[in-house]
Amino acid sequence: MDFAQTPAQRRLCQAVRDFGQRELNFENSGDGPATPFNREGWLRCARFGVLGWPVPKKYGGSGLDPLSTILALDALGYACRDNGLVFAVNNHLWACAIYLVEHGTPELCETYLPPMCDGRWIGAHALTEPGTGSDVLSITTRAERAGDHYVLNGTKTFISNAPVADVFVVLARTALEGARQQALSAFVVPAHLPGVRVAREWNKAGLHTTPMGEVVFTDCRVPARNLLGGEGDGYAVFTSTIEWERAFMFASQVGVMERILDDCVRYATTRRQFGRTLGGFDSISGKIADMKVRIDLARLILHKIGWLKDAGRLAMMESAIAKLFISESHLNTALDAVQIHGARGYLTEFGIEREVRDALCGPIYGGTSEIQRKLIAGMLGIAAGDETG
């Protein structure tokens, strides 16, 4: 594995940083629960090509290779201080668009990917239900075959991008008996279809410019051609695609961590207490050193995943490790930044506490940290619930 960036990758990262710092850090409407979706930032991302980075050029995307995509997302996270906008972009890419890229028919890709790349359509993943989160095999939303359509009924909740989404990837139950893993199917569902309704919008602690909502499907007739894979392939589609989400979505968080580090270094080298800079205290310099360690280790695992995906290989273990380590490292880095900045870190005026609120959900979405540890242990041969050793 060669860790050196190619000249093209270096140019891409610099261009992304310049774009983000120049065009995505304009004043939006604040950071309260009622903060609206940053549509202007979304459209600027579309014009720059962000919304199509992993999408083949024939469908309107940039066709970036996996490692270049990771590097670009890292740079975007560093440059754009609107973490909610970056999170909305990542949801669009890794919880919706990649499903089409990996499993959509040419017809589906030609219909849905171009408007998703140019910013006209926003994607979301309708997976979680009021009674089902990480236990995907227990979802209750039903899709019953009726001629050349499926009739969809059920409720999905805590769905990022839902209030502004134009298209959903939906996992639903198409069989009541038989093997659980063959009971689910995945569908592409346009938001404009009769029977699709966003029932409510949730207020959150952070990531306020990523709207989250509850979606209700009532006798929604979805064309059978909107299946991803075949009937009963939903769980296989989900498990083969989730590794993209667990790894690539968190590449942006590494950029955020580096931005926080740079802010802390600037503060620690200029703020003076007891006759010396804060950085002169071991308690402060140690926290900053830990930030750097987390960033470099996070990039190593992400770059390995980029290399594996570029080679067409699975990265289930590596993706679980990346999701676990980066999400927890991001939160720890943000908490350390509050401690380093003292009172300024706690006040909303300086934006440090916002980094904590935006990082809080990382160990939850995409499979909790506990789920990632269970997956990693399982892939090492440790059975769930085995307490014999």
UniProtKB/TrEMBL annotation:
Residues 124-220 form the Acyl-CoA oxidase/dehydrogenase middle domain. The keyword DNA-binding does not apply. It comes from Microbispora cellulosiformans. Belongs to the acyl-CoA dehydrogenase family. Residues 232-377 form the Acyl-CoA dehydrogenase/oxidase C-terminal domain. Its cofactor is FAD. Keywords: FAD, Flavoprotein, Oxidoreductase. GO terms for molecular function: acyl-CoA dehydrogenase activity; flavin adenine dinucleotide binding. Residues 6-119 form the Acyl-CoA dehydrogenase/oxidase N-terminal domain. The keyword 4Fe-4S does not apply. Transmembrane segments: none annotated. Pfam families: Acyl-CoA_dh_1, Acyl-CoA_dh_M, Acyl-CoA_dh_N. This is Acyl-CoA dehydrogenase.
